[in-house]
Design goal:
It is built from 21 helices and 10 strands. The chain is an alpha/beta fold and 492 residues long. The protein has an 8-stranded parallel beta barrel, surrounded by 8 helices. A two-stranded antiparallel ribbon has the order 9-10. The chain starts with 6 loop residues before the first strand and ends with a strand.
């Protein structure tokens, strides 16, 4: 019997993070926002993680502004944010007062739902986020990072999901950043989750790195999953998500309904195909199965960044060697999932091990802090070889919540860098130094994002592009609009 399978859109957050190096601007997003609101998505993922940081550092667009403008245009569909527990959207561990204020301001600016995760699946690191989100009335999607290892069994995920629900999570989200899930595994893990959490909705969020995610999503529905995460086709496949149109069509063929307006979905796809052309951005393409991903488990965007960095120093030819060493470092770190920020720790260490020709000859400070417990508890014990090299005389091991290890900072920031007109700017100052905020605020003062609200008109864009070609002397368009014949002729 068919079911209603809601679709969460990842185009505006994870899609361009995976395929466009997180470079989608407000000018690209705002013109399509109202049309997306009419498609019927369960929710639209908008902000968090690398999207926040790139917006500030490189695009010079204040993320708080993005949320506010998108909320003006998207009035029916809930907007999502994703936060990394006590680190929010950075690599730093923040004190509880910062996390609580950030959650409050996300909701006040227009975020209705929040996906909360910890890079270790150490749920003590999400307690403050979950409690703060529930306090302000946000729906909480308890997110578990999927990984392959001797530790990450179905029972492991079932237990973590049950903990999340007891904590207050309204839904569970299985986040598979490297496309590690298989049809066979999804068939066992969904029933295990269902047994542990009962009727609480289960989301599946899987990337196409191994080429398996589209079929995995369909298999997840048959196994009992409730919601699927997709991206529009021009920003799907590759390191991104399965395409929304394909998933919708296959579900309908199997007797399910998604609630999506298929014609409006195609309109959105056409818009982003044009955005790829206009801004010279890549379109996602299906990838063949690559068994090496099952070993190193690195997301596609991280591999491209690593390849570029290795090219800059002239050792791109050692990429495969470094990826193999990354899998060994991950095992030594206690099989931590390959997700930021610990993924960066293991990759940096793998590069050092390969270049220096000796494992753990140099251990960066961030990995030392990891070994000492400052980021939380890893899934399994850390290898003695790593501990011996990382821990120095006088170092102190810590335990407990990462947020409790750092002192409150809001009042200190107010006194040393204030006054601030808004709590949003106070938080900006917590996250970034003046050297980053000054150009951001200067650009913000000059920005007029409302001019992008109705900026996209397909007919106007077509005529604009065609009239640039001097050899075209006549343009004729015929069709129907609202049942009326339309005829346009232009002669140069």
């Amino acid at each position: 019997m068919g079911r209603h399978i809601p679709i969460v859109d990842e185009t505006l957050r994870d899609g361009h993070q995976c395929l466009w190096s997180t470079r989608m601007t407000n000018e690209m997003m705002l013109p399509i926002a109202q049309r997306m609101d009419r498609i019927g998505f369960d929710s639209i993922d908008l902000i968090g993680g690398a999207v926040w940081d790139v917006s500030v550092r490189f695009l010079k667009e204040d993320p708080w502004e993005r949320i506010r403008h998108m909320r003006k245009l998207i009035t029916r569909t809930p907007l999502n944010a994703i936060v990394r527990g006590q680190s929010l959207w950075t690599f730093e561990v923040f004190p509880n007062d910062v996390v609580e204020l950030a959650i409050e301001r996300l909701q006040a600016n227009g975020i209705a739902q929040i996906a909360v995760y910890d890079q270790f699946n150490d749920l003590q690191n999400v307690e403050v986020c979950v409690a703060a989100s529930k306090r302000v009335g946000m729906m909480v999607m308890g997110t578990l990072v999927f990984s392959w290892s001797p530790v990450h069994s179905d029972a492991y995920y079932a237990d973590k999901a049950a903990q999340f629900v007891r904590m207050g999570a309204d839904e569970i989200n299985l986040k598979d950043p490297s496309g590690m899930l298989s049809v066979e595994r999804i068939g066992t893990i969904i029933p295990a989750l269902r047994k542990a959490i009962g009727p609480v909705p289960i989301n599946i969020h899987s990337h196409c790195m191994t080429g398996r995610a589209p079929e995995v999503l369909l298999a997840a529905v048959e196994a009992g999953a409730d919601k699927l995460h997709t991206a529009i086709s021009p920003l799907a496949h590759g390191a991104s998500h399965p395409p929304a149109e394909w998933i919708h069509d296959r579900l309908v063929e199997r007797g399910h309904i998604t609630g999506l307006d298929r014609e409006a979905l195609e309109d959105m796809a056409g818009y982003f195909r044009y955005m790829c052309y206009r801004w010279n951005k890549p379109r996602g393409e299906p990838v063949d199965f690559d068994a090496r991903v099952l070993e190193h488990q690195m997301p596609g965007g991280m591999i491209s960044n690593l390849r570029n960095q290795l090219r800059e120093v002239g050792i791109e030819d050692r990429l495969d060697e470094i990826l193999r060493e990354t899998s060994r470092v991950r095992k030594d770190m206690g099989y931590v999932p390959v997700v930021s920020p610990t993924a960066q720790f293991m990759v940096t260490q793998a590069v050092l091990n390969v270049i220096q020709g000796e494992r753990y000859k140099t251990v960066p400070d961030e990995l030392r802090k990891y070994c000492l417990g400052y980021y939380g508890k890893p899934p399994a014990a850390i290898a003695p070889e790593l501990l011996e090299r990382a821990v120095r005389k006088g170092d102190k091991f810590v335990s407990g919540r990462a947020g409790d290890l750092v002192a409150p900072s809001l009042e200190r920031i107010r006194k040393t860098r204030g006054p601030f007109k808004t709590d949003e700017d106070l938080l900006n100052a917590v996250f970034y130094g003046d050297e980053i905020l000054k150009p951001l605020f200067a650009a913000r003062a000059q920005a007029n994002y409302t001019r992008f609200y109705q900026a996209y008109n397909p007919l106007r864009e077509l005529l604009s592009q065609v009239t640039r070609h001097r050899h075209i002397g006549y343009i004729g368009l015929r069709g129907q609009v609202g049942g009326e014949d339309l005829k346009i002729e232009m002669t140069k």
